[in-house]
Amino acid sequence: MADQSTSQPDEKLNLHPRNAHRNRYDFAALVKALPGLREFVSQNEHDDLSIDFTDPDAVRTLNQALLKQHYGVNTWDIPEGFLCPPIPGRADYIHYIADVLAEGNNGVVPTGKTIKVLDIGVGANCIYPLIGHKTYGWDFVGSEADYIAAASAKKIIEDNGLGGAIEIRKQTTYANIFDGIIKPGEKFDMTMCNPPFHSSSKEVKEKSSRKWKNLGQDKGTDLNFGGRNNELWYEGGEPRFLNKMITESKQFARSCKWFSSLISKKTTLDGCYKSLDYYKAADVKTITMSQGQKTSRVLVWRF
Fold first, then answer.
1. What gap in Å lies between CA 130 and CA 107, rounded to an integer?
2. Phi and psi (nearest 5°) for 149?
């Protein structure tokens, strides 16, 4: 679930140094890039220009403006009910895995089409391939099990003329992660994933309800930033999903130089470390990321 903050410090020092969103949103520039944002912008209680971050239309339009201004993505939208991602945090993940790839390239972030990245569960928003390709020129494959999400991601790619750089592959079963996506003989430099981190739809609704209460809003359990079941929860939650991912990654050790995944809950890490030790991972890294009051981690490993 997106957690874009209503406050805007002059500099978001907790974001990656190369993140284009470290400074407060320049709403004048954003409105210039996307005039349709103007109707959502007003002065807040701090006399700053801002939007209502509890309004899903405002957040979606802000994302459209950010993608257009910073990444040259002229057309972007998502179907109703799907996850609307916070752009700054998504960009951070891209920059941190770029740092990992730089370690094997004399400290220089590798750019261009020679770098191939697999995004597991690309989603209807296709956000990681868009940011990764526009920032570093990497080629991407995005896997997706949901038909509507896959169609949405493909439309974004086609509308922006990115068919030569980003490919969407349909995963035929929710039971598999890499199996059925990585082709025989295919090589990837990095895999990435923003996994579902709740264990049930009930947990999703309870957390959403608490969020609305904290915001002083009476909106029941509606998710203002969207998110379908497969985007938000997985039976057994984040620990089970990551265990499945690590188990399958061992099978595809020759196909991928590095594997990675976001980890939302710190308590998930111990089980991941045990699984990686069991499968004899050669190198394991844990990168801490933070945006506002939220802290997450990127777990990176190779065999």
1. 24
2. -65, -45
Mean pLDDT of 123-142: 98
Q: Tell me the two tokens of residue 142.
A: 């995005």
Which residues share a beta bridge with 42?
A: 50
Determine phi and psi for 9, rounding to 5 degrees: -65, 155
Is 215's pLDDT higher than 90?
no
Buried b (16+ CB within 10 A) or exposed e, 170-189: ebeeeeebbeebbeeeeebb
| Cα 176 to Cα 182: distance, rounded to the nearest angstrom | 11
- Token pair for 298: 């990127």
Q: Which residues, 6+ apart, have CB-to-CB distance to 191 below 8 Å? A: 117, 118, 119, 120, 178, 249, 256, 258, 259, 260
Residue 193: how many CB atoms within 10 A of its CB? 23
- Domains in the chain, start-ordered, CATH in brackets? 85-302 (3.40.50.150)
Return the amino acid letter for 232.
L
User: Cα 294–297–303 angle (5° rounding)?
Assistant: 170
By mean pLDDT, which of 10-19, 175-184, 205-214 is the weakest? 205-214
- Looking at residue 25, its pLDDT comes to 94
Encoded amino acid at 31, one letter:
V
- The pTM of the full predicted model, rounded to 2 decimals, is 0.86
Strand, helix or coil at 159? Answer: helix
- CA–CA dist 153, 147 (Å, integer): 10
The torsion angle over the Cα atoms of residues 297, 300, 301 and 302, rounded to 10 degrees, is 170
Q: Contact, 285 vs 251, CB < 8 A?
A: no
Token pair of 123 as six digits: 């989603």
